[in-house]
């Protein structure tokens, strides 16, 4: 992920187009592949999109339709500690502690630490799974102790 990438919020017109396109594309969300026709200034072309690409496009359109800027990165992208901290919504010093304790894999390039997006996402998935399990346990305990939660 390059720090010189320009983040731009979608215009109101782009938000509306994304909303409309998202509704149309959502009908094809569970397909293995989708045939798509593109009409533009350069002419008309037909594409075949794998289902994973359709899912990705739906996620992008969903974010844009809510007025959010988005960024797409490959899982092999190398992130700086600041970029990784931003993605986890933690401070850079906290992220460095996670790296040094072995919670997240990293490599050093000179004196700089670099984290693969794949490793950062794996850590986030482990963290999310642990949080979900803890919430499930709390809900179960609340029900067992008749605390009024259902």
Structure overview:
This protein has two domains: 12-65, no CATH class; 78-144, Multidrug-efflux Transporter Regulator, Chain: A, Domain 2 (Orthogonal Bundle). 50% of the residues lie in helices and 17% in strands. The chain contains five helices and five strands, in the order H-E-E-H-E-H-H-E-E-H. The chain has helices spanning 12-26, 51-65, 81-88, 92-100, 117-144, and strands at residues 33-40, 43-50, 78-79, 107-109, 112-116. The strands form two sheets. Strands 3-5-4 form a three-stranded antiparallel sheet. It has a two-stranded antiparallel ribbon with strand order 1-2. A hairpin with a 2-residue loop joins strand 1 and strand 2. Helix 1 packs antiparallel against helix 2 (51-65) and helix 3 packs across helix 4. The longest helix has 28 residues, at 117-144.
Short description:
With 150 residues, the protein is an alpha+beta fold. It is 50% helix and 17% strand.
């Amino acid at each position: 992920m390059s720090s010189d990438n320009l983040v731009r919020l979608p215009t109101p017109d782009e938000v509306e187009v994304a909303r409309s396109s998202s509704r149309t594309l959502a009908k094809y969300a569970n397909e293995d592949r989708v045939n798509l026709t593109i009409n533009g200034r350069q002419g008309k072309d037909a594409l075949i999109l794998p289902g994973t690409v359709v899912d990705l496009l739906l996620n992008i359109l969903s974010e844009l339709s809510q007025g959010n800027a988005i960024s797409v990165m490959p899982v092999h992208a190398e992130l700086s500690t600041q970029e990784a901290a931003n993605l986890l919504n933690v401070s850079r010093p906290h992220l460095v502690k996670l790296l040094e304790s072995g919670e997240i894999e990293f490599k050093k390039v000179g004196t700089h630490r670099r984290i693969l997006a794949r490793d950062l996402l794996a850590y986030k998935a482990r963290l999310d799974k642990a949080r979900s399990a803890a919430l499930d346990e709390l809900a179960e305990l609340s029900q067992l102790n008749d605390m009024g939660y259902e």
